[in-house]
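Possible regression after last week's pipeline update?

I re-ran a chain I had predicted before the update to compare outputs. Posting the input and the new output here so someone can diff against the archived version. Not blocking, just want to make sure nothing changed silently.
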Amino acid sequence: MKTRLIVFIFLLSVGAFAYTPTSALTSEEAARKLEAMTWYTEEYPPYNYKGDDGLPTGISVDILMAAFKKIGVGLTPGDIKIVPWNRSYKFIQRKPKTALFSMTYSPERLAIMKFVGPVVPNNVSVIAPRKKEMGTLTAKDLGQFKLGVVRDDIGDQLLRKFALSNEAIQRKNSLTQLLFLLRTGRVDAVAYSVGVFKHAMKRSGQNPDLYEEVLVLKQGWMGYAFHHSTEPEALVPLQEAIDELHADGTIKKIIDRYGD
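New output (post-update):
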């Protein structure tokens, strides 16, 4: 009940579903429309990434499959395409019948896409090596440093609000490239999801405790995003399934299964 209340309050606060359906779809019709979409994701572990078998896996993939099972959508992880974020982010804006996850909510994104969620929390910060002793920063301090971001990632979009010079920010197309910049000292810090950063450090055999958050940019949620032309009615069963998975504890169990 507590989770459902949090979800409800969140949806009201961001207006994620501020629409009124104009026509009804049966659950079967909605399922077929979801099956007809092209589904994209990226390397964003532990939420979505390529597994040892070459198929997409992760927290958000497992949650989506559980929701699909509830509403009779016959898609599998093999139907999801793993594409670099900057490309898939363009697809979701330009190509009808497309879906992309995991997408962090922001007012700018809510204005140009439709969302189902919230699904999982996601905190975004400026992260730096502890040895740099940067301390706790303010937004005004950022211009003193070289920062790395993944192009069109939420970290990139949040930093744009601070009107930093192009020289201050290096944009790359993947997390792997971003971590290379940080490891080789070509940037002082990165703006990225804290959970994904820590997970990536562990997977690469590095100690995430050697890094620290020097500025929190956003404490938010992620969900599944859809092209703005998507019929709202087609998303209602999926939203209801996600709500039920929150309420019965399934989402928490999936998150716990992947650990921190």
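Follow-up from reviewer: compared with the archived run. Strands lie at 38-41, 49-50, 56-57, 80-82, 98-104, 113-129, 147-150, 169-172, 189-193, 211-227. Marking as no regression found.
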